[in-house]
Amino acid sequence: MLFGAGALGCVGGGSEETTVVRFWAMGREGEVVEELLEEFERQHPRIRVDVQQLPWSAAHEKLLTAFVGRSTPDLAQLGNTWVSEFAALEALEPLDEWIEGALEPESYFAGIWDTNVIDDVLFGIPWYVDTRMLFYRKDLLAQAGHATMPGSWPGWRQAMEDVKEIQGPDRYAILLPVNEWTQAVILGLQAGSGLLADNNTRGAFAEPPFRRALQFYVDLFRAGLAPPVSNNEVANLYQEFARGYFAMYITGPWNLGEFERRLPASMADQWGVAPLPGPNGRSDGVSLAGGASLVMFRSSEHKAAAWEVVRFLSAPKQQVRFFELMGNLPARREAWQDSSLTRDSRVAAFADQLDRVVATPKIPEWELIATRVQEHVEHALRGTTPVDSVLVRLDAEVSKLLEKRRWLLARSQADAGRP
Amino acid sequence: MSLEREQAKAARWFLTPALLLIGMFFFLPVVAGLLLSFTDFDIYAVASPDRVRFVGWRNYADLLESDTFWSAVRNTLYFVLVGAPLSVLVSLATALLVNTPGVKLQGLFRTIYFAPVVTPLVAVAIVWRYLYHPRYGLLNHWMEAVGIDAIDWLGDPRWSMPAIILLAVWKNFGYNMIIFVAGLQAIPRELYEAASVDGAGPWWRFRYITAPSLGPAFLFVGITTMVGFFQLFAEPYVMTQGGPLGSTRSLLLLMYEEGFRWWRLGVASTVAVLLFGFTLAGTLLQLRFSRGR
């Protein structure tokens, strides 16, 4: 495939003035972006965009292999948690100079923009965004005596207890799959934990903010409000939600369409989307800054042309079309004014949450650390070990994983100190 | 020059291409892997080679005291010690069945039993995931029909490994069955006839004619099955991704995760070296056992 892409590039380069931009996009985005780019190619007759579609499951490996084999594309879509890794590889083109006069950081959601800034250098332009919100059964919540979803942890907990009351022993208030790290991490961020400390060189999980969050989380299971099950133990999420096995679920925008399609028609108006509650209220109810960014590669020979593609895809009009074609939420705030987004109250609710999103630690080790968080938290949930000792062990393990990072930082500081 | 030396020279020329290829694509990578296991080669080192450190035995020490590693060792041994003998027994039993004189459609049965071996695992895994489904799966449906409580095969840490073993045995027994069938057909009929004349029943005939004659086949099947089962990877990779609670994470899956998910190639190489050690020890044990007999 790599070789094929190179060969294609040569053919395109043969027609003298046409520049071929090699663009790697993942999953369905790869299909849909070709539709968007038809207009781009009409506007820019001298640029041809050669889109390569990578499956999500193989994308990470393929990008790394391409980097090692010096065959990275000109432009790529990158999950925004991957930006730090490819920045550490020095594979990405810094974009601070490129955006001058072309794009305003202010027209993006601050938390999302921030995921692309590594040590004060900008490496990616947000393409579409994603975050987690609370999907819930309005009818069950109303039956339990709550007209709206409470905004603070104590109110939320009370609502869960009231729902459980009417649900009975075999049904639950909320589904929090034990094989996911996201819920515990979100609650930790809400409680003010930085997750890691000392310039991301050691774990801060045993410190009070995260401990408080995990205690709140674990108590939901101990009180029987959430079932201790993993994702694959829930046979059909949508059926179970419709059946009332659980009344709340923390998930992302990809489920907006799925819920609409898969829930029975009678359910259509019975479910809503609420911002995540925070420890003291909505204002600290932060969520994860997710989504994908567009990045240019340092080794590219067609950066100017690739940048034109980035600018084109960042235009509010294209962002709205992208949403209409496949439901990806726009990264540009202007696009959210469009009627296709404002007319659906559930979609519009995401704009509210997106103002309160924060990035997970922007270091290459984060994904590995996240799986360790999940494993240790699962141990706490299954009731085998108390929260405190779980967190101490988690911190010890995380600090070990970050040893290399401490060494690299110490070395670069020593280098900087040298005359 | 003597004829012998001339021949030796010719032999060297003929061997050189093969030796070069083996050296390039087998010995070099093996040595490189061994060296890598003494470094902290990771994603940072991919960016620039001066970020690699020689760490001595640290990867080994870290692994040997990590719970993840030992749970992978336990899972792998569980799979090998239960799965491999079971697989060999099922192979032998089916080989005896399809080789019974007078059974019709022997060819058809052999083909049916061999079919899982040549079916792609991913396709098989999808079907088996339906079979294992906790609520709508056929397996639980049957069990409930005879009054056994349903089991969450792939979601319960206690049952996930038995579920993987069942799948692996079903998927692989056909191959060994063919080897046993070949071994059975090489046993002269006269031996059985003579034994029958002497009044030996089916069990005695099996004990004193079939089993000893199959000795070499047993040794071959035993070693290849064990080596193969040590390399458990695809089944949990497709079915459970190592979960629930890491109960199906084998050594090879751990190596894959360390190497290609986290790009900690130093640690991954260490796992590989340790896995090699385990497999070698197992093979030597088996050889010694069979020689002692």
What's the gist of this structure?
The complex is a heterodimer of chains A (419) and B (293). Chain A has 419 residues and is of the alpha/beta class.
Can you characterise this structure?
- The complex is a heterodimer of chains A (419) and B (293).
- Chain A has 419 residues and is of the alpha/beta class.
- Chain A has helices at residues 2-14, 27-43, 56-68, 83-88, 96-99, 110-114, 138-143, 153-167, 182-190, 208-222, 237-243, 254-262, 303-314, 316-326, 339-342, 345-354, 366-381, 387-401, 403-417, and strands at residues 19-26, 47-54, 75-79, 117-118, 121-122, 125-130, 133-137, 174-175, 196-197, 202-203, 248-251, 271-274, 287-288, 290-296, 329-330, 357-358.
- Chain A is globular.
- Chain B has one domain: MetI-like fold (Orthogonal Bundle), CATH 1.10.3720.10.
- Chain B has helices at 3-36, 43-47, 58-64, 67-98, 106-118, 121-131, 138-145, 160-185, 189-197, 202-213, 215-230, 234-239, 251-261, 265-292.
- The chains are: A alpha/beta (419), B mainly alpha (293).
